[in-house]
């Protein structure tokens, strides 16, 4: 900073008269407005000029951090301040590390466009980058800062990163381990010893993670406490690093002690709000068993939920482990402090730029004036997730006082209107493509409207449907659909036109029922038949279908597209023969189970089990099209859709074999979904399918498939790309190596 000493006139002048400030001017000042700058002065126009006060003003201005230099001049009563402002940073880039990661730029670099250039802040950002890389287990990283002045006077800042080397743990040793197997520690710690072929799936690569290193000893101790070792001590690891080869040896010093058994389990309520016996029913710890800290925590959460459901929102369950070190027994005491009952004052909703407030409120089990319930709160989160309208939702509890709280519902809108694409490829049937337009939340109203068209060399399908899951915001639902389809085969075509209408009812939070009516007309056209070809038309009789469908379903999952908890169970019955040709009773049963695995394996993997059981009973006439067929997504991948079926010899059919469908079929799938590119909402899924189908017996045909696929929440909707191989393939089967769909639940 430089100060033009305008008062030199006084040092060299013999005049002793002080000068008066007639005006105050500013030049080059942008970041601070002139009125604000004037208010910062300790003098005003009309005051006598004092060197110390001008000096004080310059220091105040400089302390704002906006300027590289400030000086003042005084001429003929005019005091003018001159400012040289810092340059603006207009662009920030990373080179050599996380170049396109906006989250890293925001959370690590923390230098945003439009901020003033500041050397200290850049150096702080540099240190944060090196620290973030070191947390990944890399040392000796180098970060350089490049500055480029642009034509508009702003600065482009580039952090050039040269990542260091990863440290590989070559040897990991434990001292003092006798009661447990140290190999079991690998299930809980993050830093593990390098194994042969560590790059292979399921093997340990030995890469050190510094951010986990300080917690690994606590994880080992917790593992001991899960096995009753309440006195176990696990010191922080001793690490010896070879900086020449970037390898490390690690060792833990452990004092195990003895495992404790449970001598007594009791409950202590500081204020009696519920019978102790009801709390005891929630407790899994049993007298005589080895103490398990994991079970203890689970029991504490169960107790907390039980009391919180009685409106004690701020309940605390404090553990009290009374150890007898001589006998190695422990008395477990759950100390419950309920606090006061809490009422919900208000429910505030934010983030819903499209979905109407009432659509969200009708899914909440807590409203203004209601008494608090933790189960109601959890079920409300899951209900919002099952809508499929949002990328995520949270319900925050804002404490007003000991008896009142507000609930803050925050949602993030997801695209519910999408273009649905689907298709597949088989070595036999070629390419099938389908396209549709669907919106599950039209104008934010919660109403589902869809139009679909499917076209291939042999098929055409067109449909329109509309459904409202909550008619007039009630527990009743309604739907209507109309459709037309045409299938072209070698010698004939089949046409179907139909309409359906139905009404449903929500009986509880997880149970819904449905009753609907459907009518369809099905006809065959043999105009393509060559005059020299004969065709047994016994299997191709025109028919009409009129029937009622009744169904019930259970769904307590936490998300529509990608559930991680809960299961779905549904059962439907369709009875036809009401004034039409087809006459049968059809049963469809499904069961799907979902489980998030992050708690056990440390990342967001999801296990899924899906099963389907279908049976049809002949009450007079079952058209071939109404029987069951397997193959493709939804049953057994690795085979063409609808290609697995009982057959008969028919010289008029392609290959001399005609598929006539089965009366019963069962198929199930095991899937594990892994995060692939979390930022792009892309996941990898591996699967094994197996199914059975038959006419007289369900196991007449048994086929399976396995493979992997891609699950992607694309900007136009969820997409599945499946690559499969058949299992137990037999002559005459139609394998399919690839299928894809869009808009379906994973």
Please describe what this structure looks like.
The protein is about 15% helix and about 45% strand. The protein contains 11 helices and 36 strands. The protein is globular and about 120 Å long. The two termini are about 65 Å apart. Residues about 1-15 and about 425-430 have low confidence and may be disordered.
Number of DSSP-assigned strands: 36
Please indicate the percent range of residues in DSSP E strands (runs of 2 or more): 35-45%
Number of domains: 6
Helix content bin: 10-25%
**How many helices in DSSP terms?**
11
CATH architecture of the largest domain: Beta Barrel
The overall average pLDDT, rounded, is 85
Strand order of the largest sheet: 19-20-21-22-23-24-25-26-27-28-29-32-33-34-35-36
The CATH class of the largest domain is identified as: Mainly Beta
Q: Describe the biggest sheet?
A: 16 strands, antiparallel, barrel
Q: What would CATH call the homologous superfamily of the largest domain?
A: membrane protein fhac: a member of the omp85/tpsb transporter family
Could you give a quick summary of the protein structure above?
This protein is mostly beta strands. It is built from 11 helices and 36 strands.
